Amino acid sequence: MASLLRSTAVTLEMIKWEHSIFALPFALTAAVLAADGWPSWSKLGWIILCMVAARSAAMAFNRLVDAEFDRVNPRTAMRAIPAGQLGAKFVAAFVVVAALVFLFGSAMLNRLTLELAPIALLVVLGYSYMKRVTRWSHLVLGLALGIAPSAAWIAVRGAYDPRMLVLTALVVLWVGGFDVLYACQDFEHDRRVGLNSVPAAFGMEGAFWIARCMHLAVVVLAAWLDRLFALGPVGYAGTILVAALLLYEHLIVSPRDIRRMNAAFFLLNGVISVVFFLFVAGAVWRSTS
């Protein structure tokens, strides 16, 4: 039992489960919009469980299938699997358990969420192979997180609304943009081992410009979402603040200086997702009070 608990703790540290905060606020945003207010606590609880379980399965699977690449990359060589802290069989079992928890949570929401759950799993697990086949794997990662708000809307309403495509596209480009920046750290490694990425294909300068364009599109899509849901001044204020945070993110890193990449990637993007949710929730609350 002690060994099981220790291995589970190492796995949770390896997958950085606390970084579920990246996508969770966008799922909560969709849930609030779908409920035109705060959804029931039971639905909220199952949505959060599904989000954490799906991301945990995806991250553990990614570490499992990328273990050999991580072993030869100085930045990732000390991750749990290449460092010998975890065995492949344990991590595979963790993936299966997390996937089953996700499917169970989906079943507790409604029939449509359960029917679509296997497709969601295919997307979030399939991302791990994308760097082997396309330089645009960053957008596939974006899609893995971007389906979260659409899934949350379906969880609350039991049906889909085309307006969620705007929020999904926003998350796809937001995640894709910061993943392009993050991949700049492995620019030389990816070229050496033959992995595809935007930095490996277009160089550091090109990668930064592509990320900037993606994040500019995020601001446009956020303003469009404000209009679609009539979020008013509070919604637009949130969009302006998100734009300012994205600008700051791009100011603290550059193709010639990526030393603050972790701050840009982990801290700022967590703040951006929470700020976005709080302002949308505030706009909904204001319109219904």
Give the percentage of residues in beta strands.
under 5%
Can you say what the CATH homologous superfamily is?
UbiA prenyltransferase
User: Which regions are unreliable across 5 or more consecutive residues at pLDDT < 50?
Assistant: none
Morphology call: globular
**What composes the largest sheet?**
none
Tell me the total number of β-strands.
Answer: 0
Radius of gyration based on Cα positions:
19 Å
Count of distinct structural domains: 1
Class from helix and strand fractions: mainly alpha
CATH fold node name:
Tetracycline Repressor, domain 2
Helix content: over 70%
- Give the averaged pLDDT, no decimals: 87
Query: Can you identify the CATH class?
Result: Mainly Alpha
SSE topology string: HHHHHHHHHHHH
Put simply, the count of helices is: 12
User: Oligomeric state of the chains?
Assistant: single chain
Architecture per CATH nomenclature, i.e. the level-2 architecture: Orthogonal Bundle
